[in-house]
Amino acid sequence: MPTIPTPSAHLLQLLPEAVVQTDALWEITYLNPAWHTLTGHPVEAALGRSLLEFVHPDDVGTLRSGMPVFRLRFADGDYRWVRLQLHPETDAAERVISRQGVLIEITEVTEQVLVEVRQRFLRLLETIDGVVWEAERGVGNTFLSPQVERLFGYTVEEWRSDPGFWRSRVHPDDLPEALAIDDAAYNATHSYAYEMNYRLFAKSGKVVWVRDLCRAVVEPERPNRMIGLMIDVTRQKNTELELLRSDNRYALATLGSNDGIWDWDLRTDVLHVSGRFHEIVGLGGADHVHGGGWDFFHQLIDPDDRARVQAACRRHLSGDSPNFSVDFRAFHGAGRLVWVNWRGVAQFEDGVAVRMAGSLSDLAERGSSYDALTNLPGRPLFRDRLAHAIALHRNEAANDEEAPARAGTTMFAVLLLDLNRFKAVNDTLGHHVGDQLLQQVARRLESCVRAVDLVARMSGDEFNVLLEAIEPDEAAARARQIAAALEAPYEIGGHTVSSGASIGLVSSASGLATIDDYLRAADSAMYQAKSRSLGVCVFA
């Protein structure tokens, strides 16, 4: 039992106020004579007993929580209102070993006022589904509401007996951040509100997620103190974590395909897109929710591709196709055009489409659909565009009585070109020069066609061009223009390289039926051009 040094004990004996000392478990270890004068209880009879025995049963929790005002039983059996602010003494490990304070009977405040104040306070605590607390620098918790036992299983005494109790119960993974926030509050120079979210180990060993709503209170000539409300948010946090895990699984799956995701409510025209969607079209920091779904898509699509994209979408919404997938050029935030694939499926209610969802792919990152070396579309995209052109031409011819007069609007031509002397360039100057030659050829081809046309690299030194809305004679003239452009010498790494091209051309006027029919016809014409050094040969 702690002892009080003789000089201090002598002074305490002379004080007119009652001095009370207890150990960590509330056992009375020292009383001065004023205790007997004030309460009527003999000092010897009270020593060794629990102070809580003298407290009104309804106020035991109040005292244990750290409230200094409560009712004390006097020797005559009456309970009277007193004030006892107990100050803890700690050992080297900062564990509470005793409490000391001065006991004063409150006579200037009527009992009724105190009762009302206390009752209001208790009612307030009962309505709060959390632990109300107050802590002071160097002391630890000076107040703790009884809910701490219901939420975490610890008694108020267990919690308040050790200034480091809270820190020792915070989950290790959350402790560094929690301590940083806590220390900042203890060392604050001004009052402010803050919030902490962390895991706490309950007495049972269960992990409880806590949301701690706090305020650092800085007052002149007083140690910093904090007040707060700890709320058990375990259920909410577990729900959030499960949603996050679900989102992460979904994000990981979409990341694997590197696609952007979109979800479009057709009833409200509200479109939700993922961050990856915005990355593909260069809209990094834009809002992921767009109030006008079609307006957003419409602005992305190159004007020359809009009719084709709308047609693919409408075919699906009308029930002609189980889903839709269409490639088009999209405006990128950096001011350039990028080839993308837009695909999705609609949800129908009573035959009406109410929602659509799907993905957006950057075709430059899909090796088989886009050629990384030349930055041109690859074989799959070219075949898709050619299929659309064939279907459009065939449908207009079958459904429109005026088709002969309007056939030019859907007429098209397919060009297949193969570079001359390309193998010799690779063999004599190296493949790095050959690669640069292919890149320059790609740029020249793009400069020779219109925005509505498509240039694609099929393989090696073989390129295809789809000319849309063009008559056969005009297509042949455009092919000769391309041949002339490719015949001009190339300057590559200090070398002057000459490599023209042999071009085979087939027009929709031939009436062929399938994609492969057109590609075989163009290939046949190209070989005739190469074998006869014709430059351009038209399939007939």
Could you walk me through the main structural features you see in this protein, from its secondary elements to its overall organization?
The protein is α+β, with helices and mostly antiparallel strands. The protein is built from 19 helices and 26 strands. The strands form six sheets. Strands 1, 2, 3, 4, 5 and 6 form a six-stranded antiparallel beta sheet that branches. The protein has a six-stranded antiparallel beta sheet with strand order 14-13-12-17-16-15. Strands 8-7-11-10-9 form a five-stranded antiparallel beta sheet, with helices on both faces. Strand 18 and strand 19 form a beta hairpin. Helix 16 packs antiparallel against helix 17. The longest helix has 24 residues. The protein is elongated. The termini are far apart. The N terminus is likely disordered.
Output the keywords:
disordered N terminus, 38% helix, 6-stranded antiparallel β-sheet, alpha+beta, 540 residues
State the end-to-end distance: 114 Å
| Count of individual helical segments | 19
- Portion of residues in helices? 25-40%
Low-pLDDT segments: 1-7, 401-407
Quickly give the structural class: alpha+beta
Q: What is the number of strand segments?
A: 26
Radius of gyration: 42 Å
In percent, how much strand structure appears in the residues? Answer: 25-35%
How would you characterize the largest beta sheet? Answer: 6 strands, antiparallel
